[in-house]
Amino acid sequence: MRHFITFAFFLFISVACKAQDYNETVQSFQQYYKVDDLAGMKQIAHQLVQYYPDDYAGYAFAAYTSLLENKLSEAEINLQSVQILNPADLGSYSIAAYAAFLNGNPQEAEKLMNYAFQLKTNTAVLSEILEDISQLERFLQKDLAALKTVAQEADKNTSGAISAMKIYADCTAAWWQKKECAITETLNYLNSQKFKNEEIIAQIQFNRASAYYDTQQWDQAQKAYQQFLELPIVKKGHLGFAAAHSLLRLSYFDADGELIIAKANQGLNYIEGLLNTSFIQCELLMRKMHAYAELNDLENKFASAQHLLSKAEKINFTFAALKAKNTIGAYYIESRKPGAAGLAYKYLFEAYNESLKFNEPDLQSEIATNYALALWKRGEKSRAKQMVEKEYEYSLKNAKYLDAQNLANNLAFMFYMNEDYGQAAELFEKAIAITENHLKKLPQQEQLLVMNNHAGAYSGLVMSYRNLNETEKLFKAQDLNRSRILKNNLNKNIPQVSLSQVQSLLANDEVMLYYSNGEPGEMIVSVITSTSAEISYNFPIDDWLTIKRKFINIVNKQPNSINNYVTKLNEEIVDGKLVSYSDKKQGFTVKDYDQFISISREFLQSHDEKLADLQTEFLKHWYQFLIQPVANQIQGKKTLLISAEGKLGFMPFEAFINSSNHYLIEDFNVKYIPSATIWASLQNRNYPATRKSLLAMGGATYAKPKTSGSENRSMPDVYQIKNQLSQKISENKVNLKEELSLLGFGGANYLAGTLKEVQNLKMIVPDATVLINDQMKESDIKRLNKNDELAKYKWLHIATHGFALDNFPQLSGVMMMQPPGGDGEEDMFLLAHEIAQLNLKADMAVLSACETALGKVYKGEGVNGLNSALLTAGANNTLLSLWPVNDAGTMILMTLVYNNLNQGQMSVEDAVNTAKREMLSGKYGAQFASPVIWAPFVINGK
């Protein structure tokens, strides 16, 4: 067996294993082999399989010892594992050839023996293989002269192998030295063989990618792994282990959690059924766990952790097992399930104490963070604080700033729960300082992800300052926690606005309402006028719990009673058991709050008269929650400038109804701002009064829509396409037609209302430029932009199909004219990143289409979509829609808006709000007085 693993340049040995121990174990096998000690060889094979389940050597040795015992079926099973783990090893193929011959298949033995000799690196291989066969003869008491002849013939057939393998070995060494090396001769040799082995050729490509990766040649590694996965033999399902390994490593190039999950699932599918448990399987599960954490998907994160723990414990993968226990314990800390507190302590107690023996300080620190929370919940507050303080100092000392951020944040919440708001605020500020310093070094997409994870510190600081009644500091924390990417896109040098600066910019009849979420169902708002600033607060927990029982539980099919017992407000049924909360706030969660927003939006969009009373009830609740607490401060004002946080930005405040059955818009103008800093910066963006009036586009025709939808694709395919789109968008590619088509984007039904809409606008604004049908191609709007024509208009109006994807904001956009022969280099979709690059000098940009005001909500940023793109392009205000719009109602609203702008010489704010009030009055019929019609279009910006 001396020829064994001579070709194994890459061994899949986990970080938890030591290479020195591995090599010593392999050498021990060789010693037993020399003296025909079968028991010793079997013992070593078993040890290798047990401790190195991702390496092929143990399985190969086990296969060989099974042959020595004439256990051919057992040998075949182990050889299958060898083939999975490393299909490019001389020794493995020679053992497989022995097995085939002993099974009475000389043709298969001949092929496999030739595969083995194609990989020979020296002339001694033949004698070593003949030595194996002689040993088999001794143990089996059989004449295997014919098998020796097969080996001798294979040696003759592969005379060029040594030279070819030397080139490969030299190239491998070169790749590890970050040098380029062509292996054309090796590949040509392998391709020319009578017994051609596609798996060896593919494995060489994989090994090359691995060399690039291990030497941190990231671009080359990424490209090489992708090329390997595209090989036909890999796509057929062969080389599953290498494919899984490739996908694991490729996942580290992704920042998008969905893409990471897609690659992890692909990798797990490749090795499903191949091996019982492996390190690579555990590492893929850890990637899934990490990705679900990034996506804040706690249930799937928990499920992945449970799966990981069951696998890791089987193979003594301590690092992975501790990661899993930490995640499971953290889940139970936040869980409301019966017995959750005890389970949290159990898992975290085990994880923490095991981590002390494992000698991994970073992992120990990570676990200690959650263990401290479990201790806190058990009442061991002093010990919990001491533990977090210790780990915080360790993280700072070792420059692990993101860990320090998390620890400072957790410690701050401990002080907050202990009502020590001053100390809590100080620690939240430390956590935020670390985040702010880290963000400066990151590209935009990564900034969004980091802020999404770190937003809790900003919320905690807002909550602390609310309790300390620190108005100015609270406002600063609020403003810092939204629209930073938009600010950078507008101008990286824009300073954060101060409270006094905001007051100086507000008119006497304006009031800014700056909303922040505290605990679920808790509202904190800075109420700012030109002469005053104060904090308002509302946490009607009883109302929220009543709503939960009345609506949310019904939607979720969750009972409000058990065994004829009706639950109280501080109780609920969880997993069929009655749970009682010492603090009833525990019974209302972020998920409940977000779900109520979703239900509210569904009712708002409904034309069903049977739901009218429910719609009114919901709108009254929102008024009581968000407006009534500030009623005194806003009394006598004309305009409300609203900055809402999170999904609250998807709600039309103007449609909220007070106890006198008046809509908010009946008493106030309502407009929205991304942040106070953005709003303040837009006050300095003034355009010439000499601009033309209106550029309106509508009446586009589209390709015939697909009747069967897009081609059925697996989720990994979809995420891969999204990845390709993200790459092209980052490279500023203009034509994404291929990827858009693969995702189902194509034609659409003609919207006759859009033609009538813009033709009607021409009558309202006689000097308007109206482009219809084939005049509103994507190339047309880009040509107008290139010629600076777009910058000459006060108002830009595009009426067409629109789309805003909350899971992929880069794909938000509008459809342009789709000529039968296409539009040259354009894909005929004007997407958010293309809109952001336009040069506008518009007082108002209108996308008269469905759901153009939506997008992905990032904590610490807000809604990322078309509004941000248009403001970046230069529009001072946007008028976009929150839900699908009614053609006739939209035409009436837009007619009124532009009549107010052009004839009435109103500001954008007055024009839009006056138009809505006129529709609400019933002047145009009861059907158009409903908020379903006038409420979706919201004004945002200056």
Automatic annotation (TrEMBL):
What's the protein name? Uncharacterized protein
UniProt superkingdom: Bacteria
Source organism of the structure: Mesonia oceanica
